[in-house]
Amino acid sequence: MSDDDNSPISAREAKLLFADLRRAPALVLAVSGGPDSVALMWLAARWRKTLARGPRLIAVTVDHGLRPQAAREARDVKKLAQSLDLPHRTMRWTGAKPKTGLPAAARDARYRLLMQAARAAGASHVLTAHTRDDQAETLLMRLLRGSGIAGLSAMAPVTERDGIALARPLLDVPKAQLIATLKRANIAFADDPTNRDTAFTRPRLRALLPQLAAEGGNARNLARLAARLARANAAVDVLADGAERFLALRDRDRPPPDAPARSFEVSTFATLPEEVRLRLLMRAIDAVGREGPAELGKVESLLAVLDRGIAERMGRRAVGTSRPHVKQTLAGALISLSRGRILIEPAPARRVRAGS
């Protein structure tokens, strides 16, 4: 992309943004009516017209039913989509809305409806208009919540959700460039006041970004940090994969635990780096437990308990005393340390109290 954050996106640059999607059968474009998503639709439509053969594009707007203006904005998106020769569909979030945690619930509903639309259209991907600015805000939100390096990697260019690829082709594009692109094309867009509502965390952090930028913490640098953390996270995942295979190789002559349980030999497990041990535990708990995914902080606490138990075991074994025993439940999994092994298996079903 251009180094000028205020320059419109050229046709050549747009071609590079969507190049990896050329062979997809169909793409759903998530278009709310705001500048980012309208720019996504306009750029994708312009790109598609340059191809002799390419994916079908379907614009989808989710009306959460939270603002009276939303229905009109959906109609405006439909008119623009029709002018670009794109089919359009409005999906509505119906039913009661939660009184707390509304942004998260609305986000979940949005993705659920988008994936539903993608399956109905035979689309392999849903495209969202997350930008470099969104990436910077996501990093800050997760940093303040104390996320690990996986969380601080922020958003990935492509993830999977309900069997559909969720792609973010504009993730390295500044919002200012999208607005400049629409202004040059003389295309109108909606202004959602929710994006400035300081009752919610993201708008409050967004308001702080100019001050952070003055200290060098602009969106470009924050997004670069997220990318570097994503690179480190991928490297640690490779190490965890290797450690998992090595532990399995050490157990090749040992009868496997009853499915779907997982088991690690303590003496080898204890030699691994802490971050790798955390990931192995988290993978096993998420695979076996019924209430996952496990929270990182709780897995860290569990590992501390296991480490103390392993240290006590080694000390007691040196003086010939009995072995310690650890048993703890987490995210629907039962984790136990006994006889030189860590066993992760499904936790017994919770008992329902009479009258409850």
Describe this entry's structure for a reader.
The chain folds into two domains: 11-229, HUPs (Rossmann fold), CATH 3.40.50; 254-346, no CATH class. 49% of the residues lie in helices and 14% in strands. The protein has helices at residues 11-18, 35-49, 70-83, 102-121, 132-144, 149-152, 175-185, 201-214, 219-250, 266-269, 274-288, 296-319; strands at residues 26-30, 56-63, 88-92, 125-127, 158-161, 164-167, 262-265, 326-330, 333-338, 341-346. The strands form two sheets. A six-stranded mixed beta sheet has the order 3-2-1-4-6-5, with helices on both faces. Strands 7-10-9-8 form a four-stranded antiparallel beta sheet. The longest helix has 32 residues, at 219-250. The radius of gyration is 25 Å and the shape is elongated.
In short:
The protein has 356 residues and is an alpha/beta fold. It is 49% helix and 14% strand. The protein folds into two domains: 11-229, HUPs (Rossmann fold, 3-Layer(aba) Sandwich); 254-346, no CATH class.
Topology:
Layout: H1 11-18, E1 26-30, H2 35-49, E2 56-63, H3 70-83, E3 88-92, H4 102-121, E4 125-127, H5 132-144, H6 149-152, E5 158-161, E6 164-167, H7 175-185, H8 201-214, H9 219-250, E7 262-265, H10 266-269, H11 274-288, H12 296-319, E8 326-330, E9 333-338, E10 341-346
Parallel strand pairs: 1-2, 1-4, 2-3, 4-6
Antiparallel strand pairs: 5-6, 7-10, 8-9, 9-10
Helix pairs in contact: 1-2, 2-7, 5-8, 5-9, 9-11, 11-12
